[in-house]
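thread from #wetlab-drylab

HS: before we spend reagent money on co-crystallization trials with iron/sulfur cluster, can we at least see a predicted complex? here's what I'd submit
DV: go for it
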Amino acid sequence: MLPAICGQGVSEVPCGDCTACCTSSQFVHIAPDENETLSHVPPELRFPAPRMPRGHVVLGYDQSGHCPLLGGAGCSIYAHRPRTCRTYDCRVFVATGLEITEESQVSIARRAKRWRFSFPEELDRVRHEAVRAAAAFLKEHQGLLPEDLAPRTVTQVAVLAVGIHDLFLDRDAETTRLRPVAPTAQAVRSEVIRRRRP
Ligand code: SF4
């Protein structure tokens, strides 16, 4: 999940025949550098992305909440699908303990609840604890981040929590093992700004 969130890979989610995220009234963002994707999306399906610079677009959805590129056999442009779709990972909700509340996304919520995690190593459990702590922190400190960096949806909170969970870990001086810690609000704010505004 982390490489996908950091823009260094794609999510490898065993979706099976689930198309919940393609049928949940979601606007799919496409960035201007996604030339391969854009060449497979008809211009009439693209709309300027709100609050984003010129060139960023979104795919809308039909009256049933379905992506217009979803066909009977799944995504009709699967090999060229947007980065948003390549990196979407509904396991993020179970990982963070956050629940989707949007009525239109009930099928994603239902599917996500079925995921189960295992912790082969103690470190896996500790990191999961840090992810949950980061999510709880972000929920508790709404308004901490500048407006342009603040997560607006549950999905964005969950993704940010995974992305900054390392701030909720520290190395024990004696054992050198990672252990959960509680950073200050100011420390989290500064680090998020540093990472997001290079
Ligand atoms: S572009 Fe493809 S993968 Fe993305 S939402 Fe539409 S149908 Fe689903």
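DV: The pocket of iron/sulfur cluster is lined by residues 22, 28, 67, 69-70, 75, 77, 81-82, 85 (CB under 6 Å).
HS: ok that's useful, forwarding to the group
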